[in-house]
Amino acid sequence: MRMRIVDAFTDRPFAGNPAGVLLFDDVFPDDDWLQNVAMEVNHAETAFAHRLPEGGAADWALRWFTPVAEVAMCGHATLATAHVLHTTGAHQGPVRFATRSGVLIATPATDGSITLDFPTAPLTPVEIPAGVAEALGAQPLAAFDTGPNVGDLLVELADEKTILGLAPDLKSLGAYSSRGIIATAAADDSSRGYDFVSRCFFPNVGIDEDPVTGSAHTALAPHWSARLGRDDLTGLQASRRTGLVRTGLRGGRTLLTGHAVTVVEGELHA
């Protein structure tokens, strides 16, 4: 069985967020096998997709697993899967994925980028939880619940420098949401090609720091579009690998655009 490692939200190897991608002809293997493969791959997510019968609401079924759990939504592994489908000729044009978060559409462009159509996260302002400043290592200016699909606490910090300098207590962060913490701030200088910065810490699903998180941008997009007065923005996720996500707020939907590159292709013997 062919397995690929794809770096998503980047146009060069060893940047962005790596995801494992495996394609099946019809049905998924059992859940234990899928989880074991994701544990073996040991990236933030491994995506599994199988072809669906023609004429339905979606073209492929898609699931995502971290090394320790299945998740309800994942942007970078969806982008990686769409990249594999298009570069191998397994699917041409826009692809509709049936997922736990509904039907998600990935549309390729002539410049090699792919745009994902995801549900916009419902942001609800909440009180800044007691202890979160100590766990994060910085005092939030505001906090927001991101709803059940994303499952994070989004916190806005003072500035880009504060985001870059975070060194959180990861064990403590897990107490504040079902998945983890999205920390964000406005860009210090938008002439650098991005409007806001973020970092994402997800200890509850086995990911200390996620390199580039598409799903988080379904919450970051409405937050910063409201602040900056523009529907189309670019976010820099300032992990060690870094990656850029172009966001387009379209009411109840958020468009996430980025590139991807296949780095590893090999045979899975299991």
Automatic annotation (TrEMBL):
<dbReference type="Pfam" id="PF02567">
    <property type="entry name" value="PhzC-PhzF"/>
</dbReference>
<dbReference type="InterPro" id="IPR003719">
    <property type="entry name" value="Phenazine_PhzF-like"/>
</dbReference>
<protein>
    <submittedName>
        <fullName>Oxidoreductase</fullName>
    </submittedName>
</protein>
<keyword id="KW-0413">Isomerase</keyword>
<dbReference type="GO" id="GO:0016853">
    <property type="term" value="F:isomerase activity"/>
</dbReference>
<comment type="similarity">
    <text>Belongs to the PhzF family.</text>
</comment>
<dbReference type="GO" id="GO:0005737">
    <property type="term" value="C:cytoplasm"/>
</dbReference>
<feature type="active site">
    <location>
        <position position="45"/>
    </location>
</feature>
